[in-house]
From TrEMBL:
This is 2Fe-2S ferredoxin-type domain-containing protein. Residues 197-228 are annotated as: Disordered. Keywords: 2Fe-2S, Iron, Iron-sulfur, Metal-binding, Oxidoreductase. Pfam families: COXG, Fer2, Fer2_2. Residues 201-225 have a biased composition (Low complexity). Residues 2-79 form the 2Fe-2S ferredoxin-type domain. PANTHER family: OXIDOREDUCTASE WITH IRON-SULFUR SUBUNIT, XANTHINE DEHYDROGENASE IRON-SULFUR-BINDING SUBUNIT XDHC-RELATED. PROSITE patterns: 2FE2S_FER_1, 2FE2S_FER_2.
């Protein structure tokens, strides 16, 4: 995972964790919910994904997100107040330059560049300039007429000359937000100033010896992008608090107590790289990520910050887990209070909105607690010389679908019991 900082539609995106191979279009759609950028061929041919990077048109399906670190990105959603784009939208509607609309966002982004850069363009010039944007509906006649009409309108209004000159050599975005004043119609300095709409996404990067990994995601509730769902769970183990505290300091051991969890690399005292396999019906997700922990020995509290991305789909998650260890039974037992905050995007996001997610989290916590008790007992009796791990329930994947079914079954049974009791 890598960390990037960029400006998207005038908003600062800070500390966003992306894989090196993630395309800009996927990052915008899956992480920022900017679905106005359409994906067609995904080979840079059809032009449906065209947007602006540092004020210049770019194919976002073949542009790596990490290559846009420090750049300004403007999608179709960020062009509402652009005068040229307003004129083009009206002209496209007037000239019937769109039908299904799938190519339209990319078509408009390219058309804007033509209007600003080629004020004296002929019909042949427009057709040549727009040849990189494919449309299967209109036959291009209306598109060309719409662009011609906007150029004519601007000339009649006295707006002439090249408004979007090419001032740098190299790939689009290589200037890293050093484009001219035509970037979105305002100066780059103005668009890069944090404002009320500031967004801090995802996580920061950390370096582990074996592989690059995302560091802890530390989202603040007011400016962390998508709001997090918060859950509170409590369980008790019959072990003194100091023993439980010492065990919680072994991040690898704690991580693998979670059903379906394994390690991608050896854990350190403050950093762990987990893998979590989850099955929801026909969907099987394998989340890979990283997390860091801050511990307060004086108060027996700790906070884990982390983020992860599914290697099979567009789902991603970030979260924050806080735990408090409280003595009970005169010090012979420990109550573990856990507060979990998480945000899930992509295919599995619907799972986080479920009304029964709290029941599922409770069952997951129960399984974690059982594994924790087994590990603590094993640690107390001693680890064999051959390094045999503590006995825990072997769970290769977390079957969320089965958990959902069991929760629904229990709820239905409770309803029948209540009805029977009233009768």
């Amino acid at each position: 995972m890598k960390t990037i900082n960029l400006t998207v539609n005038g908003r600062e995106i800070s500390g966003a964790a992306v894989e090196p191979r993630t395309q800009l279009a996927d990052f915008l759609r899956d992480s920022l919910d900017l679905t106005g950028t359409h994906l067609g061929c995904e080979h840079g041919v059809c032009g449906a994904c065209t947007l602006l990077v540092d004020g210049m048109p770019a194919r976002s399906c073949i542009t790596l997100a990490v290559a846009c670190d420090g750049a300004q990105v403007t999608t179709i959603e960020g062009m509402d107040d652009d005068p040229c784009m307003r004129a083009l939208r009206a002209a496209f509607s007037r000239e019937h330059a769109l039908q299904c609309g799938y190519c339209t966002p990319g078509m408009l982004a390219s058309a804007r560049d033509v209007v600003l850069r080629m004020p004296d363009a002929s019909e042949q010039d427009i057709r040549y300039a727009m040849s990189g944007n494919l449309c299967r509906c209109t036959g291009y006649v209306g598109i060309v007429k719409a662009i011609q009409s906007v150029i004519a309108e601007r000339k009649a209004a006295g707006i002439a000359g090249d408004q979007n000159p090419r001032i740098e050599l190299g790939p689009v975005g290589s200037g890293h937000a050093r484009c001219g004043a035509a970037c979105n119609g305002v100066s780059p300095a103005a668009t890069r100033t944090p404002a009320a709409g500031t967004v801090k996404a995802g996580s920061a990067a950390s370096s582990a010896p074996a592989r690059p990994a995302p560091q802890a995601a530390r989202p603040a509730s007011a400016d962390a992008g998508k709001p997090m769902t918060t859950l509170n769970q409590t369980f008790t183990v019959d072990f003194p608090r100091d023993e439980v505290w010492a065990f919680f300091g072994q991040l690898g051991e704690v991580t693998t107590c979670l059903p379906g969890a394994s390690l991608l690399a050896p854990a350190t005292e403050t950093h762990v790289e987990p893998k979590l396999r989850i099955k929801v019906g026909p969907i099987v997700a394998e989340f890979e990520g990283a997390a860091d922990v801050e511990r307060d020995p004086a108060n027996y509290t700790g906070t884990i910050f982390g983020s992860a991305r599914d290697t099979r789909s567009s789902s991603a998650t970030r979260g924050e887990i806080r735990y408090d260890l409280i003595e009970e039974k005169g010090g012979s037992a420990t109550r573990v209070d856990v507060q979990v905050g998480f945000a899930l995007t992509g295919t599995l996001a619907q799972f986080s909105r479920s009304s029964i997610v709290k029941d599922i989290a409770k069952r997951m916590t129960d399984a974690f607690a059982e594994n924790l008790r087994a590990r603590l007992s094993h640690a107390r009796t001693g680890t064999p010389a051959d390094g045999t791990p503590a006995p825990v329930a072997a769970v290769s994947e977390l079957n969320a679908g089965a958990l959902v079914f069991s929760v629904l079954r229990d709820r239905i049974a409770a309803v029948f019991r209540a009805l029977f009791g009233r009768r």
